[in-house]
Amino acid sequence: MNVLKFAIDDGSTNVKVCWLDNGQIKRLTSPNSFRKDWKSAALRQTNSVYNYLIGNTKYTYDATSDKALSTTHIAYQYDDQNLLAVHHALLQTGIAPQPVEIVVTLPITEYYNPDDCQKNEANIQRKKDNLMRAITLNKSELFQIVDVSVMPESLPAVLSTLVNSNVNPLTKSLVIDLGGTTLDMGVIAGEFDEVSDIYGNKEIGVSMVTDAAKKVLAAADSDASFLVANELVRRRTDTDFIEQVVNDETQIPRILQKLEEKIDELGTQVAYEAKKFCKNPHRVYLVGGGSSLIVDAISNAYPSLGDKVVQVDNAQTALAQEICIYHAAGAE
Ligand SMILES: Nc1ncnc2c1ncn2[C@@H]1O[C@H](COP(=O)(O)OP(=O)(O)OP(=O)(O)O)[C@@H](O)[C@H]1O
Ligand SMILES: [Mg+2]
């Protein structure tokens, strides 16, 4: 029997899933928002309730809860919430639960030993063991994970870009991955001949902007969940959307100005860290959900690179997509 394969970039704020369906690549993004205990049945039949049990602990998916558990710590990679996030994302594919093989990701500084850039086999094994643990979904079926492989975050996102861009073994490519809560960077030599340096920073992420958005919304009588604040950052030029979420419309200019300030600040910080980490790369690739917010700041930081500063297509799902293509090619 052919076991289905999924590439899963299980980030701290969103799980990105890619798989092949009749040779066509499918992608989806599943936001992480779990809290302890169970929800009661939905009033409307169309709203599914996801009540999970791991050991003796009950969890539920709750998109709007203020009590959503934090996933921004490194232990997230090896704990209950990661197991929940991966199973929950698989259910969103609409495919009937069945045995599956998955490829997941670890932050670059967990996957490699920071001192010598060699694989950290202990961390990799720990992540695999975590995802093979037992979990149940109340009144419904879950996928059975029969095999787990692990890839590093960030770097593989540019695999096919590098292979198609005529780089020579001496070309140094800097990959910058700005996610919801972390900034990860790595330097690749040639087409992927070597990973020569890695960097991880858990203080810098899109959440700097999202948190500010939450605050200014609250000041305009419009308390918002993290998801709504996120949506506002993404759709900040969409007037209709803004008017829907902001009650006190006189505050709209102030809100937008605050967002732009925070986005600028984020860009400045990322550019500063990038220059410090890798002063003179030959190319720069931007991936991750936050990349569109910082592309100008990075271009300005590396003025002589011109169009060699590239925001990768589908930046948020690029990693999952490349892992999917890479594993599909390997299996043939
Ligand atoms: N087009 C966009 N414009 C602005 N922000 C965006 C856009 N697309 C996604 N984001 C934001 O990017 C963040 C998620 O990015 P991503 O999925 O790369 O993070 P993650 O992998 O979960 O986090 P991390 O890598 O830090 O663990 C969210 O805060 C989301 O709102
Ligand atoms: Mg990520």
UniProtKB/TrEMBL annotation:
InterPro entries recorded: ASKHA_NBD_ParM_R1-like, ATPase_NBD, ParM/StbA_N, ParM_C
Species in which this protein is naturally found: Ferrimonas lipolytica
Residue stretches making up the Plasmid segregation protein ParM C-terminal domain: 168-323
Lineage start: Bacteria, Pseudomonadati, Pseudomonadota, Gammaproteobacteria, Alteromonadales
Name listed for the protein in its UniProt record: StbA family protein
Residues of the Plasmid segregation protein ParM/StbA N-terminal domain: 4-161
